[in-house]
Amino acid sequence: SLRVLDGAVMVVCAIGCVQSQTVTVDRQMQRYEVPRIIFINKLDRYGSEPYTALKQLKTKLGLCAALTQVPLGAEDKFAGVVDVVRREAHHFEGYKGLSWNTNEVPAKLVEQVEETRKTLVELMADLDDDLAESFLVDENVPADELERAIRRQTIARKFCPVLLGSAYKNKGVQPLLDAVCKYLPSPGDRTYSGYDQSRNGERVEITPDEKKPFLGMAFKSQDLPPNGTLTYMRVYQGSLKKGQSVVDTKTNKRQSLKKLLRLHSSETREVTSAGPGDIVACTGLDVFSGVTCTDGKINWTMSPLHIPAPVVSLSISPASREDSTKMAKALARFKREDPTFIVSTDPGTKETIVSGMGELHLFIYAERIRREYNANVTTGEPRVNFRETINERVPFDYTHKRQSGGRGQYGKVTGYFEPLSYDEVQEILTKHQGEITPMNASKYLTIFQNNIRGNEIPKNFIAYIEKGFRECLEEGPLTGSAVCNLRIVLEGGKHHEVDSSEVAFKAAAQGAFEQAFYGGSPTILQPVMNVEVTVPTDKTGSLMSGITVRKGLVTGSEALTDLDTLVRAKVPLRNMFGFTTELRSITQGHGEWAMDFHAYEEMPADDQESVKKQSIESVGGPDSALIIAGDIGGTNCRLRLLLVSKAADKKDTGSDSESEEPKTKTQLLYAAKYPTASCPSLEEALTRFTSEAPALDEAEMSNVVCVVGLPSDVKNNKVARIANIPHWVDTDGDAIAEKLGLGKIVLLNDFESACWGIPMLDESELICLNSGIPINKARTSAPAITSVLIGPGTGLGEGYLVTARATNHVSAHASEGAWVSFAPQDEEEFELMKFVKKDLGVPRVVVEHLTAGPALPMLTRFYGQKEGMDLADLPKTAPEVAGKYATCPVCTKACDKAMEILGRELAFLCLKFKPQGGIFLIGNVVDSLRDSILAEGSSLRKGLFHSLYHPILEGIVRDTPINIVNANGVSMGMEGAINRATRLALARL
C-alpha cells in the first residue's frame, strides 16, 4: 500500500521501540519515497519509553526526527500531550478520551517544553533556509512559520515530526489527525512520473488534473463478499467513473468497471467517480496487483510495486479432478491478490509449483486451499531456490561442425563469460522487481552483449546464438538452478555460406556454454535471510549457539527489557527449516522470531558438494540414477552425464522390467566434447570424462550405466575396428566398464543408437511429408509397432525400432538394406548404372551409391557429361551441388534423380515393414534439399507415390506417416544413447 500513498503515519511502539517490522516498514517508505510523520504509541502502558524510541529512530533508522510534543504524565498517569510548536497542552478525558480541551502549559513542564521547542527550531533552521532567516532575526519563531517549515521539510523527506499518544485510549489521536493535514502532502504537492511506452519508455510527468486522460494503479486485489473481487485503485491523473472501461497495460486487455466503492474501516459506500489522489475499490476488474491502468487514450506505465524474488518453492497437487478445479481457482485468486506468491509448472514433471517468501508463507496458502475451497491437496518438501554463477571471466571458442554428405552444419562463436558487478545486479533487480521468478531468473539476471562489428556472423544468426545460450542458462549444471549474474559477450566467429544456419549457431552457443562454464569457477548462490529473534535474556547464549550451528552470522543484540533480548543475524534460508521447533525448545515457548530476505550470497565451498548431491537426489529420490551417454564420430567424441528419474505417474504399475516404457525426467549434469583424434581410445575418453564430471565420485561409479554410439558394427559388445577412427582398435565395452568401475557399458552401432532416439522426438521437431494414419488413430491388432529411420549422409543409414504392444518392450536394430541392388527403371537409368560402375569401380550398383551425399557430385558429372560440359567446372562436393540446386541445371537434375531414387526406397520400406509408427528421415542430404523435397510434385514424392504399379501397394504407402526430422542441433544418436541408457538404468533400480 505504501507504493500509492502521498504520505504516511509511521507508528512506533513506546515499549518495544524500533522492532524488526519497524525496520521493514522504514525500508519500504524509503524505497517508495513516502513523506512521513511518526506517532509513538502506547504511552499509557507500563514500561513505555518515548525518549528511547526517539533515540532508536535516529540511531537504528538514521532518521532526522524531533519531538513536536511532550507527554503529560507517563504510563497509567498519561493524560495528554503538550504541543511544543504552539505551546498548548491538550488534556484528554472521559470515555476513550473523547472529551479533550486545550489549556496553557503546566508550570512544571514549561522548561521542558521550551527546551524541546528550541531543539526543534534549531534543527529546522539547519534544514530550512526560510526559517533560518527568521531564526537569525528572532529565536522565538512564530508557530505558523515553524509549522510551514516543518511541512516543507517533511514533504522533502528531510525531516520527520514525532507525535505522542495512546491509540487504544484515544489520547493524542486528534492532534495526530491535525498533523496529517498540517505536515503531509496533498496529491498536488507530490510529483510523479511515468513512462510513455509509445515513445520507447520516455519519462513523462503525471499531473493530478481531472481533465487529463485517466491513469491509475491497481495496488491490491481482495475477495470481499458480497461485492466479489475488489481491486483497490489509486487515481493519479484524470478521473474514474462507474461503468468506465479501463485498459490493463500489462495485458492490453480492456475491462469495464461495475462499481466504485469508497471504503472506511468495515464500511463501504458506493460512489460515482474518483479523482486524482483518491483511493477506491472497483468491482468487475481482473488485474494483478501493481498493474498500471489507463483509459486507453495514453500508453503510459508507472514503476511497479517492489516485489522480492521468491526464495522457497514446493510442489502442490490435487487428489482428484474435482480438487484440481478447486485448486486452480484458489491459486488464481491468491496469485492475483499476492504478487509474492508465484504459480508455475515444472517443465519436466508437469507438477504445479508454488513459490514464495518462506516455508510458512506457502503452507498458509496450502491450508487456505483446504479450508476455504474444501480441496484435498498435498504438498511436497520445500525447496530453496538456489542460483548459479561464475566467479571469474572465462573465454569461449567453439566450433559446431557436422558433415556427412549434403548440407552440413557449421557455426563458430568466440567471446567470453564474466560475472556481473554488484551494482549491475542491483539495477536489474530494481528495474524488474516483481517480474523475477525461479523459472525466469536467468532471463533477467544475465546480459547478452554482441560486440561483433564486421560480418563474421550474419545478423540473422545472432538471435539464435543468444537463444542457444539462454536455453543453457535455464538449468545450470551444478544444481539445475538458473544461471544468473552473468554477462555473455560475443566477440567473433565464422560462418559458412552453405552449411551455416540458425540451428548450427544455436548449437554452437550451447556447445560453447558446456565447454567454458566450468572454467569460470562456477559457484552456487543461496538466499540469505535477515533474522530477528526475541528470547529471554538467560537463553541468549543457547540461541546464538544454535544460530552458529545453522551457519548464521550474529550481527548484533540489544536488551529490550530486563528480561528480554533481541538478537539479529543473517542465516542461509536452507538452514532455517525447523527453527520454530528449536526456538520453542530453547525458550520453553517464550521466544519470537521473524525473517525477511536479505540477498543472494555465495555458498561456502564446503557446503556446495553436499547441496549438489542433495539436488541430484531431489530430482528423482530413490527412483533415480546416473547415466553417461556418448555419440562418437570421426571428428568429435561427445559425452554427457545425466541424472534420470521416474516421473510421478498415478498409472505407474510399479514394474521394474526394462519392457515397461519409463516416464522419465532428465537433468543434464555435465557435458564435454573432445576431438576424437586426441583420444587414444574410448577408455581414455571415458577416463578423462569421469574425472572431470563434478557430480561423480568413486562410490557412485559402480551404479552408472553408460551407452555409447559408434560408427561401426558391434558384436558381443565389442568393436574390432572403426573405419573413420583407425586408432581405436578392439574396443570392448565390458572390459572398459570393469576397468573404470562403471556399472555397465553398452556399445551401439551409431544408426542403432539413432533409432533409440525415435521415441525422444517431439512433434515440434517433425516436418510432415506424408500424414498417413497416425498410430493413435490406427485400428490395428498387430502385436508390434514398427518405426523406421533412414538417413542419407556419407552413406545411406537404415534402421528400425520395434515396440511390442503387449509388454511395451522396445528393441532397435541397424539395417544394411541400403546395400540392395539398384533397379533401373528406364534407358537413362541403365546408362546411369553403367556410369556408376565405371566411376566407382564396383561390380554392382546399390541404392546407397545413388542416394547418399557422395552421389550428388557423381550424378552431376553424369548429367554434365551427357550435356558435353567440362567436368572440371562442375561442383565437387555434395554441399556445393545442393547449394546450386536452383541455379545450375545439371545440379538440379542430379539432386532430383537422387531424391527420386530415395523416394522409391521409402516406398519399398513402407512395403517391407508396414511401419505404423512411421518413417523418419534424417541426414544432411535431406536437410540441404528440404524445400525441394517438400514441394508439391517433387522428385522424392514422384519416387514415393508413382513407382508402384498396384493401387493396394500405393495405398499402403499413403497410409504410412512419413516425417522429416527438423535438425535442431542435437544428434539423434545422442538422444538415442540417452534413451537406451535411461531404460537400462531404471530397470536396474
UniProtKB/TrEMBL annotation:
Residues 1-20 form the signal peptide. Keywords: Elongation factor, GTP-binding, Kinase, Nucleotide-binding, Protein biosynthesis, Signal, Transferase. GO terms for molecular function: ATP binding; D-glucose binding; glucokinase activity; GTP binding; GTPase activity; translation elongation factor activity. SMART domains: EFG_C, EFG_IV. Its main location: mitochondrion. Residues 1-188 form the Tr-type G domain. InterPro entries: ATPase_NBD, EF-G-like_DII, EFG_II, EFG_III, EFG_III/V, EFG_IV, EFG_V, EFG_V-like. It is found in: Mitochondrion. One of its GO terms (biological process) is glycolytic process. GO terms for cellular component: mitochondrion. It holds the Pfam family GTP_EFTU. PANTHER family: ELONGATION FACTOR G, MITOCHONDRIAL (PTHR43636:SF2). This is Elongation factor EF-G. The gene is GFM1_4.
